[in-house]
Design a protein that fits this description.
Helix content: over 70%
Radius of gyration: 38 Å
Structural class: mainly alpha
Number of helices: 2
Order of helices and strands: HHEE
């Protein structure tokens, strides 16, 4: 038995929706990974720059005096802690943003799959209704018996 053409179209639409949802999901996951890598690299670069600056200050302080050396070391420590704290905050913000993007992608995929399932369910109901109507017509014809064989062009024995 051949399937009606609209059934295969519905199936194709459903597959297209599922495929689009999966593609969007993959794109969002990839984008979240890139954002996390970029933010981590930025934080590490900022920390490296701050550390480099602190080391330069330490060298200058060593040449000037022992007291200034102690002050410079304290400043280096403060800057390093601040940079690490800022870097951790950036990493955590990037992780949070990535998780949110993944959650959004999952929600979008879930909704698209639910929509596709609903369309498929409605399509099946329509097919079942059409089959039931067909069966009712067949049964009506069977119970009415076969009509006598007549030439539909004759009425009352005369041809028209």
């Amino acid at each position: 038995m051949r399937r009606p053409r609209h059934f295969s179209q519905r199936r194709e639409e459903s597959e297209t929706l599922r495929s689009d949802a999966q593609s969007r999901h993959d794109e969002l996951l990839e984008s979240a990974g890139r954002v996390l890598e970029e933010r981590t690299a930025e934080a590490e670069a900022a920390a490296l720059e701050i550390r480099s600056s602190a080391e330069s200050e330490l060298e200058a302080a060593t040449e000037t005096a022992a007291r200034e050396l102690a002050d410079a070391r304290a400043e280096v420590e403060r800057i390093t802690e601040s940079a690490e704290s800022a870097a951790e905050e950036l990493r955590e913000a990037a992780r949070t943003e990535g998780r949110e993007m993944v959650d959004e992608a999952r929600d979008l995929r879930r909704q698209m799959l639910q929509d596709a399932a609903e369309k498929a369910r409605v399509g099946r109901q329509k097919v079942e209704a059409a089959k039931a109507a067909r069966d009712a017509v067949v049964n009506a014809i069977r119970t009415a018996g076969r009509p006598p064989r007549r030439d539909p062009r004759r009425v009352g024995g005369e041809r028209f």
